Amino acid sequence: MRLRICASFLGTALILAAAPANAAWHAYVMKQPVGFSFTAPGDMKAEKITYMSAMAGQHSGVAFGSTEDNVDYKITIVDFAGRSSDEAALIKEATASFQQSTKNLMDEDARVESSYGRKVTVDLPNNGGRSMSAIFFKDNHLVQLTATVRPGGDLLSSDMGRFVDSLAFYETRSDEGATELKLTD
Question: What is the pLDDT of residues 92-119, one digit of tens each?
Fold first, then answer.
């Protein structure tokens, strides 16, 4: 009996020792120009981007990203001032662009509070990994969260969904002590 108990403890200890350390997840909030919050592992680094839209042309934006455990986490914010009437078309265009040259696994309507968008999961070409994205339009801005498992990573990682589903647009849903992200000029 004691041997079984000892073997059980030893087995559990070996499993826990072999499991990868979970990265610490942090709360982030952006108050202006779009109010939203989300959670992600690691420190989010900002970079300015140029977003090309077939229907609306070239627009400036900012992407914040981090990488943990072979998964890339990215949130992209693109300013479409004056294009709020094109909200549905811009979401549709971003969804089509995300799915281009991939194997579509899921494409469905998504909702965060009173905002509607799309949630999409694709396998990347040439065994390039798997990517999940949530695409929304809020306060004249396209907001896109994308988690991509790179080759060799766990394609069934729940961290993709954890990141994408953490988006909240009401400031009251942001964690106290969240790191504030700002669009750089």
Answer: 999 999 999 999 999 999 999 888 999 9
CB 167 within 8 A of CB 136: yes
Q: Which residue type occupies 54?
A: A
Give the pLDDT confidence of 132-175 residue by residue, as tens digits. Answer: 999 999 989 999 999 999 999 999 999 999 999 999 987 656 66
The Cα–Cα gap between 30 and 150 comes to 27
What is the CA 70 to chain-centroid distance, rounded? 14
- Would you list the domain boundaries of the chain? 23-180
Token readout for 2 is 């004691």
Sign of CA dihedral 113, 114, 115, 120: positive
Q: What single-letter DSSP state applies at residue 84? A: G
Place of tokens 């394609």: 155
CB 135 within 8 A of CB 121: no
Residue appearing with tokens 């750089």: 184
Does the reported pTM lie above 0.90?
no
Architecture category of domain 23-180 in CATH: 3-Layer(aba) Sandwich (3.40)
